[in-house]
Task: inverse folding
C-alpha cells in the first residue's frame, strides 16, 4: 500500500505546479493500480482446477454380513483409497461401483486402521451406485470407513 504524504505538505509549489512530494505519490499510486489491474485480468482469465480431493466417511455401528448401498450418487471422480477400522472385532470391507469391486484388495478391518489403494475399476460417474460390502464379520462393532479420492468438476 502506498503511504500518503503528510497532508500539511503543499499540493502545489510557488509556480502553481504539483509539488515533487505529491508527484512522486501519484506516480507510485498509478504504478500500484496498473499492477493491480493486471492481477484482476489474470484472475478473470484463469480457471479453478477441474478436480479436487474428496473424502466420504461413514460409520456402521453394528455391521452385519451384507451390502450397504448408496444409490445414485451425484458425484464424478475416482475412489483411490479405502480406509477402515473397527472399534472391536474384525470384518472384511469391499467397495463396489455398480456391482464391480474396486481394483485391488479388500480391507481387512480391525482395531488397527487399514488402508488399501485402488487404481483400477475406481471411476465414478454421476448416478453410480456405491456398495460397501461387509463380510467375514467376527462380532465387529463401530466399523469406520473412509473413501478418499478425486472429485471431478465439469
Result:
Amino acid at each position: 500500500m502506498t503511504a500518503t504524504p503528510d497532508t500539511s505538505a503543499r499540493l502545489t509549489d510557488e509556480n502553481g505546479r504539483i509539488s515533487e512530494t505529491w508527484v512522486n505519490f501519484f506516480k507510485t499510486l498509478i504504478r500500484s493500480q496498473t499492477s493491480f489491474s493486471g492481477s484482476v485480468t489474470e484472475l478473470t482469465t484463469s480457471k479453478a482446477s477441474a478436480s479436487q480431493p474428496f473424502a466420504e466417511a461413514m460409520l456402521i455401528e453394528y455391521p452385519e454380513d451384507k451390502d450397504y448401498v448408496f444409490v445414485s450418487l451425484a458425484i464424478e471422480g475416482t475412489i483411490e483409497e479405502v480406509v477402515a477400522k473397527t472399534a472391536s472385532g474384525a470384518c472384511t470391507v469391499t467397495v463396489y461401483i455398480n456391482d464391480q469391486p474396486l481394483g485391488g484388495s479388500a480391507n481387512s478391518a480391525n482395531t488397527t486402521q487399514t488402508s488399501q489403494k485402488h487404481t483400477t475399476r475406481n471411476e465414478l460417474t454421476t448416478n453410480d451406485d456405491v456398495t460397501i460390502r461387509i463380510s467375514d464379520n467376527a462380532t465387529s462393532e463401530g466399523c469406520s470407513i473412509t473413501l478418499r479420492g478425486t472429485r471431478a468438476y465439469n
Notes: Residues 1-46 form one domain.
